[in-house]
Amino acid sequence: MIESVGLTKQFVRTLKKGQKEEFYAVDHISFKANPGEILGILGPNGAGKTTLLRMLGSLMEPTEGHVVIRDKGDNEIRDKADLKKHIGYLSENTKLYGRFTVRETLSLFGELYGFTKEEMTEKIEKTNDILKMEEFIDNRVEKLSTGQKQRTSIARCLVHDPDIYIFDEPTLGLDIISSKAIIDFMKQEKQRGKSVLYSTHYMEEAEFLCDRIVMINKGHVIATGTPEELRVKTGTGNLRDTFFALVEGGDEDEL
Predict the structure, then answer these.
(1) Domain boundaries defined on the chain
(2) Which CATH class is domain 1-86+163-171+193-255?
(3) What is the spatial distance between Cα 122 and Cα 93, in angstroms, rounded to a whole number?
(4) Cα–Cα distance, 220 to 235 (Å, whole number)
(5) Residues 6 or more apart in contact with residue 105 via CB below 8 angstroms
(6) What is the pLDDT of residues 189-248, one digit of tens each?
(7) Of 73, 63, 58, 52, whose CA–CA distance to 197 is shortest?
(8) What b-and-e string marks burial along 14-42, b requiring 16 or more CB atoms within 10 Å of the CB?
(9) At the N or C end, where does the chain have fewer CB atoms within 10 A?
């Protein structure tokens, strides 16, 4: 389980005349993602989604608030090194070593997590089967297509079998086949009891994939609920229209 408790991130930007201005990229956001749940984080560019996810993934320190992560025994994990073992984080800016093959890339990350060669052989084969990478697992990363690189990035997140996945735009710009492989993976991990936090611009994708939605705009939560609850609340027929109704109506109440 992962919980955001009043997460806040304040930055300072420079205006035209050299003046400084403080602003909140994320402003006191709270929610919980449960085991066996896909939680969608939706909002337009500049809403604060990536900043929020980076704080949840322990990649950025919040200005205020904190993150609570519990293990399967419901014990809160406080050690930062231990926290990272429980999280698989995927950013749209994830970088891979171009001259490594996919298999070598996974072996490298496995070594960083302290697995033996024997353990990694088993984990790589399992990961290969889940993400259907047999056609390119021994190809260099620099030779891969966009979709194949994204599957490799997800494999990197999967190799240590974390309890929580944080995915920032995992299907952005991908073809239908690559997108399906990633969506199927998220659904499978949900069935295994994992918590999946999923940020996307694709409202239609989120509508059928996510159990609950957290909609944010300008660093604030503007609504939380299941896709059906959000549609009913706004009297709309789909999440895209729901979002526009919430933004234009200035409704910032949570369900």
Answers:
(1) 1-86+163-171+193-255, 89-161
(2) alpha beta
(3) 28
(4) 22
(5) 96, 97, 141, 152, 155, 156
(6) 999 999 999 998 888 889 989 999 999 999 999 999 999 999 999 999 998 899 889 887
(7) 52
(8) eeeeeeeeeebbbbebebebeeebbbbbb
(9) C
Q: Which two tokens stand for residue 101?
A: 């093959």
